[in-house]
Amino acid sequence: MRIGLSSIIGDGFGTGSFSFGELLGNIPPVGYAYTLYTQEYPIVQGGSFFYFPDTINDIPNQTCDVDVWHDGAGGYYTNWSTATNVQFKAYGGVFHTGIQTQTPVDVTGSLVYYDSEFRNAQFIHDGTGSYTATGVFVYYPANTIIDATGVLDTPITTEVPSGSGVFYPNGKYDTYLWDGAGAGVPTSNYGSYYSNGTYIVDISQMQEVPTLSGNFYNNGKYTRYNWNGTGGVTTLTNQGSFFANGTYITLDLNLSEVPTTSGNYYHNGETTTYNWDGTGGYVAVGGGSPYPYGTYIMNDGTYDYYWDGTGSYYSFV
Question: CB of 16 within 8 A of CB of 10?
């Protein structure tokens, strides 16, 4: 119904008139309008459901006939209290499409099982309030890795540096792949070498201190080993900087043979401290003091030996 503006507000000279009843027209009162048939019965309105673990939610599994009512204001609403002919959804209604896996295979003989095939599945209502899956099973394609988490992988290693006896994974590995027919096959050299410049290890540059002592210390520099992208190693020598002048290395106790030619050595109270000189060499700095005169050293079964205060010794029967 179309209503002219002048008929609502008048013509400005007192000739217009209307009532709300005329504006609203013939709006039906609250009550029945029509019926919907075979509608999904919502869970929140009292319909039943089943739990579907793949999507972790509840799936409505009923239909019903239900009346639609006028709301008294020109609109409509579904009056679920009128639901009748409630029944489970018919067989075949698809509610989810996904992948199912099955047919476990012990790939390595270690009693660890992996699904060898999958199904492009449609999950449908089965007509009894539950569900079933339909679809075609397909083996995983040949050369598909079986366990992407690395459980079946054995890293291939390279000795770094050569002759060190220490081995590092170079990026490739032995693993198992599907053969396209449901079986797993061992595969060597799978994957890719680590890219050029990938860090492996730093090995400290060692120096004997003092000379001929057989004791070696890091002088501040190191050799870095990186992968070269083809399974080999790039060696970067003289990396870093020598320790600064005066950096402590070690402290030795000064020893004296007592008695002479006995082969027995004792600390005489003096020490030698070794420090780095900032250029990769070292300096020796004396320290301590000789034990005081009369300080007991040892008894060799015949004589008692004492320090004489200068780093040497004397003895008494």
Answer: yes
- pTM score, whole prediction: 0.56
Number of domain units in the chain: 3
SS3 7: helix
Residues 98 and 80 in one domain: no
Same domain (yes/no): 142, 58: no
Distance CA 167, CA 157 (A): 6
Question: Are both 317 and 269 inside the same structural domain?
Answer: yes
Among residues 88, 107, 122, which one ends one of the domains? 88
Range of the domain at 181: 94-191
What averages of pLDDT result for each successive group of 10 residues across the chain (317 residues)?
Answer: 38 41 72 96 97 91 98 96 97 87 80 79 93 83 88 95 96 93 90 97 96 96 97 96 97 94 94 96 95 95 93 88
Closest CA to 18 of 5, 27, 3, 7: 7
| Sheet order of strands, 113-125 included | 94-106, 113-125, 131-139
